[in-house]
Amino acid sequence: MATKHSQYVPKQGRFLGGSISPAYQSDFDSSIVPIFGHKQKGKHKKDILSGLALIGSSTLYGVAKFVLEKENETFILKRGEDSGKPKHIGQRAKSYQNLVEGRHDANNPTKLKDDYVFLTGIQNGKKYFLTLKGCFVALGFQFNDAEFTIFVKNASKYHLFFAFLQHFLNNEIPIRFVKEIFIKPLHEKLIKNGKFIFDESLSFYFTKIAELYGEEVLRKISDILGNVSPTSKPLEFEIGPLECIPDGKVLTQIYKINKKLYKKNPNENWSTKMMILFGVNIIGTDDDLCMESRLLWLVMRELDQAFSYAL
Prior knowledge:
The chain is mainly α. 54% of the residues lie in helices and 4% in strands. It contains twelve helices and four strands; from the N terminus they run ββαααββααααααααα.
């Protein structure tokens, strides 16, 4: 399956301490993402993940070209050579291949494939993209708003949760709101507090992740309407007071979108309907589809409960 790359113009690379830094720095260090531990291999792994996040499904040669284009001006200035020549790209792609597939051992626990990246197609070369776990790692990269938007769009082609975020963006929910509800709490309250480590199964954290999002929505409503507590008696949410305030209008739109999609007791066809609605192509087993669907449903449930508690 071939996927067209998003249009993206790389920035310049940076030169730190005599060596090229990763294409994108991450807020998550090796204590959070253990595969980032080795200095040079860690840099390459960051570059693979951030590259795939921004160009979409790609060959590793394509990722190497993307990364080297970002490094190229620094190489020319510091070393007097053009790192973007085909031979350099091929050499870097080979290094990436060893890290993705494992050099000799197919069961190499340090390889990225399966845990962090997966095969999306083999036409005109093997193409890869980020697994759901890889996408959550990518949330740590220091992307600007335009880059974050590109990443979410790319991830939405394969993952229901990110398709849900893309659905909000498509319905003119400001990127600020999407980040404040779905990204910032994850960073500040779970990952950076040491309560989330990427050597665990991602599904282990699904309930907590969803709860964080519900709590953030409740906090935003409370800031507008006054004291609202999840211990309050749940009543039907009234959107009238919110619609009178700019941020309240955005919350109202989020409420309407979520209410339309959420099913309290979804049947077996709900996941399929969400995939068709969002245009998602989940590549994997039935277990993968079940995992993707569970995260999406939990997030929708917590958002629904947050609005139901708000008076």
